[in-house]
Write a structure and sequence with these properties.
Blueprint: H1 3-11, H2 21-36, E1 42-46, H3 52-63, E2 70-74, H4 103-113, E3 119-122, E4 137-142, H5 147-157, E5 161-169, H6 178-188, E6 193-196, E7 199-203
Parallel strand pairs: 1-2, 1-4, 2-3, 4-5
Antiparallel strand pairs: 5-7, 6-7
Helix pairs in contact: 1-3, 2-3, 5-6
Length: about 200
């Protein structure tokens, strides 16, 4: 972990309890490694909720004086309905509509922090098209929780990800949300994914 990532995690609080500092450490360290390689391409986040991870991504980009595009995608309507691959007794609390926040609430977090907001795309992932995603991607964080959301976001991200780019998939190793791992394995293959703090890391 770089000193920059360490300083950011020590200095700023979390905006929600939906991500831990251990998970943020992994996400930011992977992004920092991409920035250090000066890889061309935008940064994208699919599933941003209230903006905890988004705020830290912006802080890291600012700390590195990196002005590349940063896009976030969310329905702002909470979780979508589950499908069969998401079935888990451990995850019965995850229901459609949970974790809903408004786009306005998300943007207010950036305003309060004095940070430039990312480009925000409001909509379900299944309704997005390749034109909604930057043509060149260096880093993607996917936090869709369920099978279809991870599958749909991977379909959008993979064609645009540059060689040397990185994808981090939230809830990859979480028993309560088995659909995330199933979608990742179907599109990526289990052998390509490194696990850390329930996150799946894919380096192309």
């Amino acid at each position: 972990m770089s000193a920059v990532v360490q300083d950011l995690l020590a200095k700023y609080p979390l905006a929600s309890d939906q991500v831990s500092k251990d998970q943020l450490r992994v996400i930011l360290s992977e992004l920092d490694a991409v920035l250090a390689r000066d890889l061309d391409g935008a940064v994208v986040e699919f599933g941003c909720y209230i903006g905890t991870t988004s705020l830290f991504i912006r802080r890291l980009l600012d700390a590195r004086q990196d002005d590349r595009e940063f896009h976030v995608y969310d329905s702002f309507a909470g979780l979508p309905p589950k499908t069969a691959p998401d079935a888990s007794r451990a995850g019965e609390q995850f229901q459609a509509g949970e974790l809903a926040v408004s786009k306005k609430q998300f943007l207010q977090q950036f305003q309060k922090a004095g940070l430039r907001p990312p480009v925000v795309h409001k909509g379900w992932f299944k309704g997005l098209t390749p034109a909604d995603v930057p043509t060149s991607l260096a880093f993607a964080f996917l936090d869709g929780d369920f099978y279809e959301s991870i599958r749909d976001s991977l379909h959008l991200v993979l064609p645009h990800l540059q060689p040397g780019g990185t994808i981090v998939i939230d809830d990859y190793a979480r028993e309560a949300l088995p659909g995330a791992a199933r979608a990742a394995h179907e599109l990526l293959g289990e052998h390509r994914i490194v696990t850390a703090y329930n996150l799946g890391v894919v380096r192309l």
